[in-house]
Amino acid sequence: MGSVSVGRVLRRGACAGAVGALVVAGLGSGVAFADDAAQSDQLWIQAPYDQAVTVAPDSGAAQYRSLALGLYHDNDNFTVTNGQLTVDASGLAGVAEVLWPANCTPDDAGTVAVCDTGDVPTRYHAQVQLKVRAAVGAAVGAQGAIKYSAQATGGPDGTLVAPEDSAETSVTVGSGPDLGLSTPQDVTGVAPGAGITVPFSITNTGNETAHSFSVKMWATYGLDVVTRYPQCTYTGPDSGGEYTPMTYVTCSFDTDVAPGATVELPAPLQLAVTEHALYDRFDYEVQPAGDVTDLDGSDNGRSFHVDADNTADFAVHGTKVNGAAGDTVTAGFRFANHGPAWVGNVGSGDPVAVIDYYLPPGTTATSVPATCHTAWTSGDDPTIGHYACTLPTWAKPDLKVAFPFQLRIDTVVPDATGHVTVHPHSDKSDAFDPNTSNNSATVIVNPSA
Fold first, then answer.
1. What is the pLDDT of residue 241?
2. Which residues lie closer than 8 Å to 25 by C-beta, 6 or more apart?
3. Residue 244 — very low, low, confident or very high, per pLDDT cuts 50/70/90?
4. Contact at 8 Å (CB) between 176 and 300?
5. pLDDT (0 to 100) of residue 30
6. Within 13 A of 340's CA, how many CA atoms are on the CB side?
7. Which helix (H) or strand (E) holds 24?
8. What are the tens digits of pLDDT across the range 15-66?
9. Residues 272, 282 contacting (CB under 8 angstroms)
10. For residue range 335-355, what is the model confidence (pLDDT) as tens digits?
11. What is the pLDDT of residues 402-432, one digit of tens each?
């Protein structure tokens, strides 16, 4: 859980080129390698690009601020251990000073330390928590830099080394408010119709008062924002056009938040889990009002996932057509989500399903829907056309999509049967569609009955 770019992740998703590559490659998870292919791995350093620290007061020392660091690597086929992160804070001289945690061993000068991160995961989480504060006498605007290097045991050659100069943190002495939000927890297994209270407290860790603040919220289609504040405007989930359906809320509150103070919204923020909820998400952020710049934006936005105990039912429906040799006929298929849940890949932007269509024998596609592309799977008959069609990143309940292929009948084959199969896909789990009996259908040209 941490800061999020809510506008980016809740957009429609993958571009056409990425979708085309996805169709051909399939929608599997993880990294696939041929048995005899040489495998690679890479060690990476996770560190913020920028870190603000508040200027020291005229008397006394400045407040320490946390700086989260860590290591991760790419290939989970390798076990990587004994992570060693070297932190060089010598570039902060006269600007800021570091308080080293217990898992870091500094040199005699106290400016460079080797930090033990232990086992290295493939998904980043903070393993080193530095504390940084402005040096006494450092003026607002003063800047310095922390540089990093790292190595670990493991990978194809026994040792992994992070790319040189791949991570650096610029530290700037500033003055102003620094609003941050409390960290929520994901909610799983919740029943449709249930209510959720969002933990929404705002703390100012800066050295100046925030004179009022603004709040923005995003709730995906399966969540309803129940609490209505007079300071807010609300846009419903059906107004987003081609983008992911969601409720969007903007608010302005005239509450002052003094340094060190924590405030809450005028009333607890309540969400409702609707009957069409499934894998949903709530994002929210806070900013000082007006032209005031927040000192550190890393904790201004939060998000959490709400996984409902619900299902959707993806189905495909075929057609039967007749024609003579040389005729062109419409012989496509239809997709439907029979609900009750919607499905949305709000994180990855991947299509919620790929539909394979193997043409009836003796036919050639002369017109193909825009979201369909030629495809190939091992074992395909080269004389049978194969297309893969993608859906958007989301599918509401009762969504119906037609795929009107135009087929030329090259050779009349009685009961020429094409096959259609939908492959549901979700960032979370494909188990949302337990009814697989309607995931396949047939398209028949010149049926005998």
1. 56
2. none
3. confident
4. no
5. 36
6. 12
7. helix 16-25
8. 333 333 333 333 333 344 444 567 999 999 999 999 999 999 988 899 999 9
9. no
10. 999 999 999 998 899 999 999
11. 999 999 999 999 999 999 999 999 999 989 9
- Whether the pTM exceeds 0.90: the reply is no
CA-based angle 96:98:100, to the nearest 5? 180
Q: Write the single-letter amino acid at 222.
A: G
Comparing CA positions, the residue from 308, 401, 321, 385 lying closest to residue 353 is 401
Tokens of residue 27, six digits: 């929608």
268 pLDDT band, cuts 50/70/90, is: very high
Helix (H, G, I), strand (E, B) or coil at 146: strand
Integer Cα distance of 364 and 8 in angstroms: 40
Query: If we measure between CA atoms, which residue out of 438, 210, 447 comes closest to residue 334?
Result: 438
Tokens 């919204």 locate to 265
Which residue bears the tokens 């700086």? Answer: 67
Rounded to 5 degrees, φ, ψ at 421 are: -140, 130
The reported pLDDT for the residue numbered 26 is 38
CB 169, CB 51: distance < 8 Å? yes
pLDDT at 59: 86
Token pair of 292, please?
């005031």
Judge if the upstream peptide bond of residue 340 is cis by omega within 30 degrees of 0. yes
Distance set, CA 189 to CA 246, 278, 306, 309, 396 (Å): 21, 10, 8, 5, 20
Q: What is the DSSP string of 305-361?
A: EEEES----EEEE--EE---TT-EEE--EEEEE--SS-EE-TTT---SEEEEEEPPT
Give me the residue label for tokens 């040389």: 326
Q: What is the 3-state secondary structure (H, E, C) of 216-241?
A: EEEEECCEEECCCCCCEEEECHHHCC
Yes or no: say if 293 and 302 are a contact pair by the CB < 8 Å rule.
Answer: no
pLDDT, average across residues 352-381: 96
The neighbour count for residue 189, using CB atoms within 10 Å, is: 7
Q: Determine the Cα–Cα distance for residues 389 and 370; give it in Å rounded to an integer.
A: 9
- Other beta carbons within 10 angstroms of residue 71's beta carbon come to 29
Say whether 19 sits in a helix, a strand or coil: helix
